[in-house]
Design brief:
Blueprint lengths: L1 H64 L8 H9 L5 E9 L4 E14 H12 L6 E9 L5 E13 L3
Antiparallel strand pairs: 1-2, 2-4, 3-4
Helix pairs in contact: 2-3
Length: 162
């Protein structure tokens, strides 16, 4: 009779514990669903960032495979497109990027130049490998027809040399 009471008590305790655990699970399910929803959103953001980095990594790998480590000299490009001493170039400090690459910026001032020649210069800078990219531009017309002052900021990737 004593063992019957023990087994009844154990069974009752287990049944109560199962009921309590079931109630706990039912009550915490909405909170857990919210947590999983936030984690799914975080994963989407992480994948979007990783995709962006993958494109940048692929671009740097393509430049590495072509050994395109330094952008074209803008002074030479300006001389070929505009003539000697027309362009005023002001290099800015390079900003470090990933895997030994850095971002090189140059402020360019082209005072009183024919605008089609300025366009030829900018196009030639963009045709190099790695290309110079136009980040900012300001064009002011000059009194002479077809001429103006062009202020621009060009940027390009550059591999740091040891």
């Amino acid at each position: 009779m004593n063992s019957e009471r023990i087994w009844t008590a154990v069974t009752t305790t287990l049944a109560a514990a199962a009921a309590a655990w079931t109630l706990h699970t039912l009550l915490s399910a909405p909170r857990q669903a919210d947590i999983l929803g936030r984690k799914a959103q975080d994963l989407q953001r992480i994948r979007a960032v990783a995709t962006r980095w993958a494109r940048e990594d692929a671009y740097r790998a393509a430049l590495e495979s072509r050994q395109a480590w330094r952008p074209q000299d803008l002074g030479e490009t300006a001389t070929r497109a505009l003539g000697e001493g027309v362009a005023r170039l002001s290099p800015r400090p390079a900003a470090p990027l990933a895997d030994g690459w850095q971002l090189r910026e140059v402020a360019v001032e082209l005072p009183g130049v024919p605008l089609p020649e300025a366009a030829v210069f900018l196009a030639a800078a963009g045709d190099s490998l790695p290309p110079w990219r136009l980040r900012e531009i300001e064009i002011r017309a000059a009194p002479d027809r077809g001429k103006g002052t062009v202020n621009a900021v060009l940027e390009a990737l550059e591999r740091k040399q040891p």
